[in-house]
Amino acid sequence: MWLIYGKKPAGKSFAICEFVIQCRVMENYKLMAPCHFGMEAVLKKEITQLGYEIVEVMDGRVIFAGGGDAIARANVFLRTAERILLIVGDFTATTFDELFEGIRKIDWPEYIPEDGRFWVAKAASVKSKLFSPSDIQSIVKKAMVERMKEKYPCERFAEDGEIFPLRIFINKDRVLVGMDTTGESLHKRGYRKLVSHAPLAENLAAGLIMLTPWKYDRILVDPFCGCGTIPIEAAMIAARIAPGMNREFTAEMWPHLATRKTWYAAVDEANDMIDMSVSPDIQGYDIDDEMVKAARENAEAAGVAQMIHFQTRPVSQLSHPKKYGFIITNPPYGERIGEKDEIAGIYRELANRYAALDSWSAFVITGTDEAEKYMGRKADKNRKIYNGMMKTYFYQFNGPKPAPRPRNNGTDADRRH
Predict the structure, then answer these.
(1) Would you tell me which CATH number, out of the four given (3.40.50.150, 3.40.190.10, 3.30.565.10, 2.40.160.20), belongs to the domain 202-244+273-402?
(2) What is the pLDDT of residues 379-413, one digit of tens each?
(3) What's the DSSP call for residue 322?
(4) Which of 42, 170, 186, 242 could form a disulfide with 270 if both were Cys (CB 3.0 to 4.6 A apart)?
């Protein structure tokens, strides 16, 4: 985030500043946060904890209300969202004419200056009469231009200023028009330079951890850590490091919608929350030396290397002397292995080592629906989660709860996770 350093990147235009004078700064917005299917409840809880009102929860997205501070804080703090969209249109359309008119009625000059670059970055349609993404994108662009011409009389817009990408979601003929305040997806925290063949997205890894009862004072082991995403996200949660505090966002250059002061305030808040004094017991194992090396480098980039112990070790050597630990892992499966016997062997080895751990809990995300058979016991809970377009299962095998610990003068209870 360039605002942290108080300087402006080369090539950025300040033409938008003149536009700010002409525009009113809106005090309340309707915002939409898409997420992985199955993560809606976790994302809803995150947004509520930030202090914003939930307006609606749908499959794969949560809509909430907030001002310019919500744009900044949601981008900086939310761990499980994919991006933050400012909803500027919400209407029904069953024909392209209705789509055109619905888009044209939106007061686009309120959001986009005369030199702004605007386009439909993505159009998606589910169970709707309008289903062609390319046609939807074309119609929306034409309608936007027509509305912009009412404010700025010209034959052609230069579009050489700040960027204003849009995303259109049509579900059962309901059209949601969102301006993308984020840019690159929020799962791109900036620390993962090296990846394994099929890594979990950072926001999905964080969501899986948040679906468990794990806290920073409990042991966490990922015996198939790959490039280290689950251990790193756990360490960031433990140290209360906001996932978006070290990256840039599209809406940083929209001061008419979210002032620079709100971005500075969000980053200051994130910095104040960091607690590097914690010493969690987080471990990541993998049989591939190169992956373990990559995991260490990624953890270093995330600023949490000192909180995680990475080691080259097969799952057959998984052990720990302490009780009440957590296994949270993404074992090889499906396309990454391909051979059913190999998959079964991996899971049976994991099951054997898990059974030898006293009072531990295990949380396993996998593409196979036979994990319970391989693990030799029925899961206490099985949650369906879509990893991209792949349906996966998050099996939860709960161990016993430890006895409550004495309060440490309230400090642990006051920590925000």
Answers:
(1) 3.40.50.150
(2) 999 999 998 888 999 999 999 999 887 765 544 44
(3) S
(4) 242
